[in-house]
Structures are given as C-alpha cells and as structure tokens.
TrEMBL record:
Species lineage: Bacteria, Pseudomonadati, Bacteroidota, Flavobacteriia, Flavobacteriales
Protein name as it appears in the record: SnoaL-like domain-containing protein
Pfam family, one: SnoaL
Superkingdom, taxonomy of origin: Bacteria
Any Gene Ontology biological process: polyketide metabolic process
SUPFAM superfamilies cross-referenced by the UniProt entry: NTF2-like
InterPro entries cross-referenced by the UniProt entry: Cyclase_SnoaL-like (IPR009959), NTF2-like_dom_sf (IPR032710)
Length: 140
C-alpha cells in the first residue's frame, strides 16, 4: 500500500519532524519547541552552556521569542549523517523585545541532532556565525 504513513522512510519522517519543529518555534510558545526534546534532552549553541531538560530548553527558546517578537524561522534543509541529522535553518526577526536594539537580523545555522529511541532529540549541537549575528543585532 503506497501512500500510507507507514510507508514513509525514516528520512521523510525526520523532514516532517523538522518542519513541525520549525512550526513550534514560529508558534511563539516555548514549551512547544521544548516538546521535541527528550525529557533530559540538551541543546548547546556555539559551544556555550548547554540547556538541559525541557524547562531550560523552553527558557532558551523563550529568550529568542521575547527578544524577537516577529521571529520567523525557516527550515532550509535536513541531511542525514552517521547516526545524526543536521537541521539547517534561517532565523529572521527584529530585536524589539525588552532592551532591544530595534535592528533586524537575518542569519543561518544548523543543529546537529542525535535522536533517542522515542524519536525525540536527545542532544542538539547548534552552530551559527555569532560574529555576523552580533554585527546585525548591534548595527555595526
């Protein structure tokens, strides 16, 4: 039977997962983004301090959602690696949140996901060009 959900490849399911993850970011509800992670899942961005657990993950998402009330995340692509997936994204928004600069940002990056057996993100390593982001954010 073609066309059934069960006929989707693992990669197709992950593309769908990535699109739903993108929608969760765009929902402006931080807990929705965190729900894509395992209860003890982690997100590390640019070798910073990892956000561990859904509460910290939601707090991380919320910091971007508050700083950029008009944020729009797009999924650019998804690639499969050796036991991981790379979710490539573009982030656009205007920093009009508390103490915002009023400047627009438009930058891209990726998260490398290690999934758990339940199909949730166990570990995500996020990377983007922080120098370019800060230049746009501060208008330098």
């Amino acid at each position: 039977m073609t066309g059934c959900k069960s006929d989707k490849s693992e990669y197709d399911k992950m593309v769908e997962f990535g699109q739903k993850y993108t929608d969760a970011w765009n929902s402006k509800v931080p807990e929705k983004m965190a729900s894509f992670y395992a209860e003890d899942g982690s997100l590390t961005v640019n070798n910073g301090t990892p956000a561990v657990g859904r509460k910290q993950l939601a707090e991380t998402a919320n910091s971007y959602m508050e700083a950029f009330p008009d944020l729009e995340l797009t999924m650019d692509s998804l690639t499969k690696g050796n036991g991981t997936y790379r979710y490539y994204w573009t982030f656009r928004g205007t920093n009009t949140g508390p103490n915002g600069t009023g400047n627009k940002v438009d930058f891209s990056g990726f998260e490398e996901w290690t999934m758990n057996e339940q199909g949730l993100v166990q570990k995500s390593i996020g990377t983007y060009d922080a120098e370019e982001y800060n230049k746009q954010l501060n208008g330098n």
